[in-house]
Design goal:
With about 290 residues, the protein is α/β, with parallel strands linked by helices. It has helices at about 10-20, 40-45, 60-75, 90-100, 115-120, 130-135, 135-145, 160-185, 195-200, 210-220, 235-250, 255-265, 270-285; strands at about 1-5, 25-30, 55, 80-85, 105-110, 125, 150-155. The chain has a seven-stranded mixed sheet with strand order 2-1-3-4-5-6-7, with helices on both faces. α1 links the parallel β1 and β2. The N and C termini lie far apart (about 65 Å). This is 6-phosphogluconate dehydrogenase. Belongs to the 6-phosphogluconate dehydrogenase family. Keywords: Gluconate utilization, Oxidoreductase.
């Protein structure tokens, strides 16, 4: 099958290679001319035979919205646009409606797999009309991991990105749990070899996972994590997950706390904890450490 791919970074570039290895023809466009096959979106559309399928793999937000809008002016009736970035699910209905005015289909695809996807496969959570999704199945089958798992048609437009949002919220909480366990083990006077404990958990335990495998890998490379600063960004999905928990009145204590822990990581000296220390000193005369 023929596919246009817009955005050839860490994810998009590797996805292109995996698709080509599976026998698909991928025409790629990127702002970096060194990795692009064509020099513009117009050239990309012209290089594809109709009905076309174009996968957008650029940063979420305005870069994706503007790319989809431009494609709406270039593509033809019967073509399909796939947004495979980490867009907020609320953007999908807007994008789909804009394209529908021209008879262009729209599919949102939540993609998980990171830099390992090129060899391990990409987990795909897809939203859109049944006919559009079925037409793209050769692409999805080439990208997904081998076997019965790793792909879901989650529902209509927006469902794919919604599923990916929740996936990433869960990921936040799982990483936080491993991290807290790591800190407790490091603090214990009873434990001598923290990296080997994580390694032992990779088989036979109920907490084994790919994240645990990656934690083992990190500790093998840097047993005391001395080369890593304890500063963690968030890319948006965790916040959106918490927002949805509030909107739907669904309690998400673990996911919410894992998001707030990332905020804490960015404070060199927490103003809130300064206030707590001051209050303890006021009511109980507890000692306060000076700057």
């Amino acid at each position: 099958m023929q596919l246009g791919m817009i955005g050839l970074g860490k994810m998009g570039g590797n996805m292109k290679l995996r698709l080509e290895k599976a026998g698909h023809q991928v025409v790629g466009y990127d702002r970096n001319p060194d990795v692009a096959d064509v020099g513009s979106l117009g050239e990309l559309v012209a290089a594809l035979e109709g009905p076309r399928a174009v996968w957008v793999m650029v940063p979420a937000g305005e870069p994706t919205r503007s790319t989809v809008a431009e494609l709406g002016e270039l593509l033809s009736e019967g073509d399909i646009v796939i947004d495979g970035g980490n867009s907020r699910f609320t953007d999908d209905a807007v994008n789909a409606a804009h394209l529908a005015e021209r008879g262009i289909g729209y599919v949102d695809a939540g993609v998980s797999g990171g830099v390992w996807g090129i060899t391990e496969g990409y987990a795909l959570m897809v939203g859109g009309a049944e006919g559009d999704v079925q037409r793209l199945m050769p692409i999805f089958n080439a990208l997904k991991p081998e076997g019965e798992f790793g792909f879901v048609h989650a529902g209509g437009v927006g469902a794919g990105h919604y599923a990916k949002m929740v996936h990433n919220g869960i990921e936040y909480a799982m990483m936080q749990a491993y991290a807290e366990g790591y800190e407790l083990l490091e603090a214990s006077e009873f434990v001598d070899n923290v990296p080997e404990i994580f390694k032992s958990w990779r088989s036979g335990t109920v907490i084994r996972s790919w994240l645990l495998d990656l934690m083992d890998r990190a500790l093998t490379d840097d047993p005391e994590l001395a080369r890593v600063k304890g500063y963690v960004e968030d890319s948006g999905e965790g916040r959106w997950t918490v927002d949805e928990g509030i909107r739907l009145r669904v309690p998400l204590p673990a996911i919410t706390e894992s998001l707030f822990a990332r905020f804490t990581s960015r404070q060199e000296d927490s103003p809130a904890m300064k206030a707590v220390a001051a209050l303890r000193n006021q009511f109980g005369g507890h000692a306060v450490k000076s700057e």
